[in-house]
Structures are given as C-alpha cells and as structure tokens.
Amino acid sequence: MADDVVRQDGAGEPDQLERLWTPYRMAYVRGDERPSGTGEEECPFCRIPTRDDEAGLVVHRGDTAYVVLNLFPYAAGHLMVCPYRHIPDYTDTTDAELVEIGQLTKRAMTVLRSVSRAEGFNIGMNQGRAGGAGIRAHLHQHVVPRWVGDANFLPIIGRTRTLPQLLGDTRELLASAWG
Asked: Are 82 and 68 in contact (CB under 8 A)?
C-alpha cells in the first residue's frame, strides 16, 4: 500500500507512509468543545450533567462529582472525574468534593480493570494554561487506562491513537459494570 500513497503536497512522489484516518479528532483540533470564555454557560463540564447519561457519556453520577468518558480519548476507556461545581483549581474543592473525587477515581480504576484488564493507569489533572489544561475553567481529573506496549509509535510519532470501540458502547459497558 505504501508504494501507491501519494504525498499530500501534490508532488506526486510516494512517501512510504500508511494512513490511519481519525476524523473524530477534527472536532478537537478545531476546538469545537473548548469554551472561549470561563463562564458556566459555555462550559462543557457544566452542560454534561444536564444531559441524559447516554448523550452526555456519563458513566456514574455521585453527590458532588460525576464520571464521564472523554470525548477525545487518549486510550479506550479514558474517563474523567469532574465536580459538578464550576471551579478551576484543585485547591477550590470542598472537603466533600475532594473525598468523592478520590473515591470515584478509585472506583473508576477498579471498573476499568474488570472490563478491560487495564495493566496500569495515568491519573492526573492539568491545572492552568502552563500546566496544559485544555479546559482551564472547570476542574477535571483524567483516569487513563494503560496496557504494556500501548504507547507504540502511533501516539508518539504519528500523533494517532486507535480506539477499538465506539464511545457509546464503552459508556454502556463501564456504566453496567459500575454497579
């Protein structure tokens, strides 16, 4: 296949590259779900809980926080734990939010291990612009399942990830296993 692939610059010379198309990522590249301001009315993490679970990709709702699939996942099963309150920083959490975010993160790991045999996790919050937060106005913690060998050349060099399942199917699987 690589021999008949033509360079995209129009030169007509084969470039020896395979192509994996990930058109769903274009919405992320364009910033479709990224708010332009910091208000609750623009915030996707404030809008998600107003939708039904399937439409919002919500896996579990707690008292002060909820668990949702990442719309632009780094890996299959990439979850986020978000407080309902529109707060930008971890230090803004109440004691109840702090405890529930921790409990939901722990449960997310247990559920992901049970349904996908995750071998490890990346867990973290990107705080502020300098910290790499894509949506800085609303705190959210990533829970990313990992498997030995999953970080091959595709995400590192090719900036492409492969996801074996539709997000709605993943949400249903995780929500059913949540219990």
From this structure: yes
Q: What residues are annotated to the active site? A: 140
Torsion angle (degrees, nearest 10) of CA 137, 143, 26, 175: -100
Distance CA 96, CA 79 (A): 20
Fold of the domain spanning 43-178: HIT family, subunit A (3.30.428)
| CB of 112 closer than 8 Å to CB of 73 | no
Using one digit for the tens of pLDDT, what is the confidence trace for 124-171?
A: 999 888 888 888 999 999 999 998 877 655 554 455 555 567 888 889
Residue 173 in 3-state DSSP? helix
Supply the pLDDT for residue 75. Answer: 84
Q: Tell me which amino acid residue 14 is.
A: P
Mention every residue, 6+ apart, whose C-beta is less than 8 A from residue 146. Answer: 75, 118, 119, 120, 121, 122
Distance CA 174, CA 169 (A): 9
DSSP secondary structure, 69-105, as one string: E-SS-SSTT-EEEEESS---SGGG--HHHHHHHHHHH
Domain range summary for the chain, segments of one domain joined by +: 43-178
